[in-house]
């Protein structure tokens, strides 16, 4: 009961943060659209009607039709599924690999720290987009390859964040006391050090999902990600860029979807960061 009350108090304090509440509302709408897409959209996102191609928004088609006569609303809603999946999965993968490397570097120190952080410096020395393109060229096109490329670019960020957290936690009194009474290193790391680093990873992960969605959309825009006729926001922008003046609605609504989703994650991350700073000061 006390845990439930504590959770409700934290939730109420979080919702009083206006930007975080707005971000949570935006993301709630996006996730609901992605989850219930088959029940929400009136048309098949792959169904074509070439006789009505580029039809502007109307009561029957609120977002209009694209260059092949497909319902734009259906494609935008279904595109949320793919964009969210790529953004969240790539961040989870980056956290798993980067967190492991960062914890090893921070806890072991010495040559392990120098080697791991040196590799992270090499990765970060390359421009993000060029490195992602190089990875996709090696692995081949496709949304799964985009996921790997985006995750690889994000690994150094989480590795450095975890390393800093581990280095700070190692010097705390309860960790020093646990080491003094003979707690095994593995248990010391998993039970006493890593939990204190999770809040910072949580904040960075929330912000990182928005960045990952933007990067994945940019690669799909270049034709390296989702391939036609898959509904994906970046690919929809790339396929409709030739009609941006004749039928601007084709690129307007996918662009707005990307903007609102990234904005939602950024606002949510700002709220979590403010809460973590308040907790640290307390």
Describe the model.
It is a single chain. The protein is 76% helix and 0% strand. By secondary structure, it is mainly alpha-helical. The protein has one domain: MetI-like (MetI-like fold), CATH 1.10.3720.10. α2 crosses α4, α4 packs antiparallel against α5 (110-125) and α4 (72-108) runs parallel beside α11. The longest helix has 37 residues, at 72-108. It is elongated.
Write the layout of secondary structure elements.
Blueprint: H1 2-15, H2 18-35, H3 37-40, H4 72-108, H5 110-125, H6 128-139, H7 143-170, H8 173-180, H9 185-221, H10 233-240, H11 249-281
Helix pairs in contact: 2-4, 2-11, 4-5, 4-7, 4-9, 4-11, 5-7, 6-7, 7-9, 8-9, 9-10, 9-11, 10-11
Total separate domains: 1
**What's the total helix number?**
11
Class in CATH?
Answer: Mainly Alpha
Q: First CA to last CA: what distance? A: 24 Å
Reported by name, the CATH topology is: MetI-like fold
**Unreliable residue runs:** none
Q: Key features?
A:
0% strand; 282 residues; MetI-like fold; single chain; mainly alpha; elongated
């Amino acid at each position: 009961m006390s845990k439930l009350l504590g959770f409700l108090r934290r939730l109420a304090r979080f919702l009083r943060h206006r930007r975080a509440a707005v971000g949570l509302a935006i993301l709630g709408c996006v996730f609901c659209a992605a989850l219930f897409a088959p029940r929400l959209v009136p048309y098949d996102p792959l169904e074509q009607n070439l006789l009505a191609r580029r039809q502007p928004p109307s009561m029957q088609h609120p977002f209009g039709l694209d260059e092949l006569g497909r319902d734009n609303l259906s494609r935008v809603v279904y595109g949320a599924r793919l964009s969210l999946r790529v953004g969240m999965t790539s961040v989870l993968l980056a956290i798993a690999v980067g967190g492991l490397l960062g914890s090893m570097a921070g806890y072991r120190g010495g040559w392990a720290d120098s080697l791991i952080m040196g590799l992270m410096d090499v990765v970060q020395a390359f421009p993000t987009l060029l490195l992602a393109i190089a990875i996709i060229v090696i692995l081949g096109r496709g949304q799964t390859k985009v996921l790997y490329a985006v995750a690889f670019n994000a690994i150094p960020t989480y590795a450095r964040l975890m390393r800093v957290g581990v280095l700070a936690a190692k010097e705390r009194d309860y960790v020093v006391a646990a080491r003094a009474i003979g707690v095994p290193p593995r248990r010391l790391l998993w039970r006493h050090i890593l939990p204190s680093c999770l809040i910072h990873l949580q904040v960075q992960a929330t912000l990182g999902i928005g960045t990952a969605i933007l990067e994945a959309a940019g690669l799909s825009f270049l034709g390296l990600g989702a391939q036609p006729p898959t509904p994906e926001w970046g690919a929809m922008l790339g396929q409709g860029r030739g009609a941006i003046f004749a039928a601007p609605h084709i690129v307007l609504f996918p662009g707005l979807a990307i903007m609102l989703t990234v904005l939602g994650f950024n606002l949510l991350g700002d709220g979590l960061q403010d809460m973590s700073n308040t907790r640290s000061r307390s």
